Amino acid sequence: MHKRAFGAVAAIGATTLLMTACGGTTTPAQTSGSTPTSTSTSTAAAPATTSATAAPTRDANADLVIWCDSTHGPAVTAIAKKFADAQGLNVQVQTTPDDKTRQQYQDATKVGKGPDIVVGAHDWLGEFVQNGVAAPVQLDAATAAKFQPSATAATKFNGQNYGVPYAIENIGLIYNKDVISTPPKTLDELISMGQAAVKAGKAKQVLSMNVGKQGNPYMAYPFFSAFGGGVFGTKANGDYDPNQVIINNAGSVKGGELLAKLGKEKILSTNVDGTNVAQLFTSKAAPFLIGGPWDIEPAKKANINYGIANLPTVAGGGAMQPFLGVQMFYLSSKAKNAPLAQEFLTAFVPTDDVQIALYEGGQRPPALKTAYDKVAAQTPDIKAWFEAGKGGKPMPNIPAMNAVWTPWGQAEADLISGAATDPKARLDAAAKEIKAAIAKG
Question: Where are the stretches annotated Disordered (predicted)?
Fold first, then answer.
């Protein structure tokens, strides 16, 4: 199918998109849930929403079917309508519960009942390829160069491109400007400033960060990366290597030692988890919050005079660099209309109007460089988040990552709580458990 010019087609304003920012991080998805709902859009009628009662199946009259979670539904529906109107097509958008898309898509695709395109996180990619549910996307070099390099890197597996990115997210340091006038450059400064705030009665604790009883490796990763630690080593081509588990290398052990120290000093606590991490900041109990874009709306509602800064550097190491999460459009390996889906992905999604429309819905920095430049010029928060992610690496998108979260998280929690007193031994044990799980498949 020939390519069309879509630049003037997708003029979608912020008022079109009534979507809230998604919360949480890109961690292992749940594996069960309810059935998607459908929104069909075409040139013949306005979108209509109906609730599906059976397993998700394709509308026989639809030219193109897209799945996404319910959080992204309004924005994806809006851009799908523009595409449908421009081409005179029937495009159907089906939404799933936020934590069910990954598994529901795979289950449906394996039996030929899935969509042409699915929207999701980049770290699903390796599993999708391994399970044969994703197809390569033919994105030419000139178009690929229009995206942030970190975003395009996240869409690749074994050197092949499997999607088109539209947003980047990461964590950073959120601080209360009424308590902290200038954000700290180093972790030692952060602790000193926080302790001074506590002493002055302006706070009750130094820092709020989601740890929990089982740990939160996504949040803790920067403490490892600051010393050159991490999860996996890389192959010669830059891909993550599941045969190189490095959560217990010298850098990671230093990160573990730092976490243990911060736990002993009550800077970090396993009593802080997803239920209270934001509230500690919004109630002004803590002047600092290590968090992400999903924490900004609660801060605004609480009238916190917040700022967003880069994560600090650590003594004896370097900058705390976060994982990068990339949101992307995948092409199904069993797409019923693959040529049309390829056109949507390669000629429509990589446009400023589409990328900015998706930004309006999710409040994450656009992956397309020109779209990001336009948004950042008008939105200081987006520029701050992007700057906080510079130097960060995309979260591993290989299937072996599924074996990492639980052992690594528990090791982190044990070090912070003091349940484990020898960081190297505890991380060695976690690495052994991860390797065994990877070998088992």
Answer: 26-55
